[in-house]
Amino acid sequence: MSTDRSEEAAWWTDRVSGPYMSDAEHAQFRAWLQDPENAKAFRESYLVLVLARELPSKLREPALLARERRPTRHPIVAIVLGAAATVALSVLLVGRYLQDRDQTYVTRTGEVRAIHLSDGSTTTLDTRSRIQVHLTRTERRVSLLDGRALFDIHSDPRHPFIVEVGSARIRVLGTEFDVYRRQNKATTLTVLRGVVEVSGRANTSNLAWIRHLEAKQTLTFDRSGVISELHAVEAQQRITWPSHVFEAQNVPLSSVIDELSRYTDTNIVIADERLRGINIVATIRVEDIRKALHDLQGIVPIQVEETGRVFIVHYHGEESIRAIQPSPNTS
Amino acid sequence: MVTTDSRDSDLLTDLVQRYGAQIEGLVRQMVHDGDIAKHIVQETYIKVFRRFGRASTPPVLYAKAYLFDAAMTNAILYLKRSRSLPELVLNAGEAEAVPDDAPGPQKIALLEDALAQLGEILEDLPEKQRRVFELRQINGTPRRQIAQQLGMSEKSVTNLTTRALANLRERLSERGFDSLLDLDDDVRPRK
Predict the structure, then answer these.
(1) pTM as predicted
(2) Would an 8 Å CB–CB cutoff place A82 in contact with chain B?
(3) CB pairs under 8 A between A and B
(4) What's the ipTM?
(5) If DSSP states are collapsed to H, E and C, what string results for chain A?
(6) Residue B126 in contact with partner chain A when CB distance is under 8 A
(7) Topology of domain A60-232, per CATH?
(8) What pLDDT shows up at residue A119?
């Protein structure tokens, strides 16, 4: 096997998985593919990629990248090095043990960002999210003000980690969990590892409700109390958003559009009521919503029109419905 | 859009729904035209549905590899012939005979073995290559994010991903998996 050809095939394989090619680049690609050996090498290289994507990746766990960079040195050294990434040097000069005091982190529309906290924990923020971090020598507390966050908490039994969501408090020792505070203020808590305790207060002092969640359990609540009791997380409810992926597992198109809308400032409008009843199974990348909608056109009977700052989703074709929902009568 | 009859396997319908966007994205990049890509992908689905519609349900891994490869083959065919789209759609079936039997057991086993070997080979790659490849191509982390978090340039991310993929393919070949292609090669003789 020619190493040069192999490298070229691998390069083009990586390239076609990236942003749309320019005309010049594509002309080059097309010319390269004219050689049957190159075309064969490309197909093989891409198939290796298809196979590799079947491998259970250690990195599918979204916060691992952050964990790999977690300092393992002496605590004091760790603080000094860790601080450089997150807070201003001036904070260090006053010599606080933990330095994320009342620091606010915000993500823009479409942005997904991992934040490494000075205690070794990591929180990944979804699009349009806002947290306030308060870490001191004696207390670890984060308020989720908007949006959604995945928390991977560094174990420290002496300092419980508290996440405040409105009037509710989530108390953990060392674990990983996802908190999704919707615009209607209903919040869904999903625990990936460990155990957490969540409690709500009717007012500032009275405890109204309390639940203990274990790994793979989820609970939805709002300021009035628990809306959906705790239950096991279905396998299909995997947390994929930190990788910019939305997995729709038999989800109504209207919910898919709601989800995609969170990642763009452009409004998405469903123009035809018939589309609301269609359920979708798809893996959608949310980094580029225009492209995501375009890709959706290939699997559901929609036509997306873009006018100004609105995407209008039209119904497109009756035969397509049969393709999505094959019925035994279709022949 | 694909219309299929009730004998078509649910697995294939599921695969199309699950990977449809990915396959169309791949073909769009290959032919550099959204509309032509749509037609090529539809033509591919019809061929693949016909191919397996008459046979027993193929294993997922095989069916997935088959779908991607069939789409790539059709895209390459289009690029090579430089034909107009209607001709491609009419003639796409000519290039490859469409067997009407179950996929060959050897090819299925080969793909499954290749996947197992690939796991080992990936583990043996130089640490940096493996980590960047997994993040970029398996986990889907954006290039820029990997560059920022691992403290390297985006060009280095591309180079490491490319090198890792080339290594995977070369080492797979060294272990006797010369060709993953021609997935119809060893189908049972036609009746």
Answers:
(1) 0.48
(2) no
(3) 193
(4) 0.85
(5) CCHHHHHHHHHHHHHHCCCCCCHHHHHHHHHHHCCHHHHHHHHHHHHHHHHHCCCCCHHHCCCHHHHHCCCCCCHHHHHHHHHHHHCCHHHHHCCCCCCCCCEEEECCCCCCEEEECCCCCEEEECCCCEEEEEECCCCEEEEEEEEEEEEECCCCCCCCEEEEECCEEEEECCCEEEEEECCCCCEEEEEEECCEEEEEECCCCCEEEEEEECCCEEEEEECCEEEEEEEECCCCCCCCHHHCEEEEEEEEHHHHHHHHHCCCCCEEEECCHHHHHCEEEEEEECCCHHHHHHHHCCCCCEEEEEECCEEEEEECCCHHHHHHCCCCCCC
(6) no
(7) Jelly Rolls (2.60.120)
(8) 80
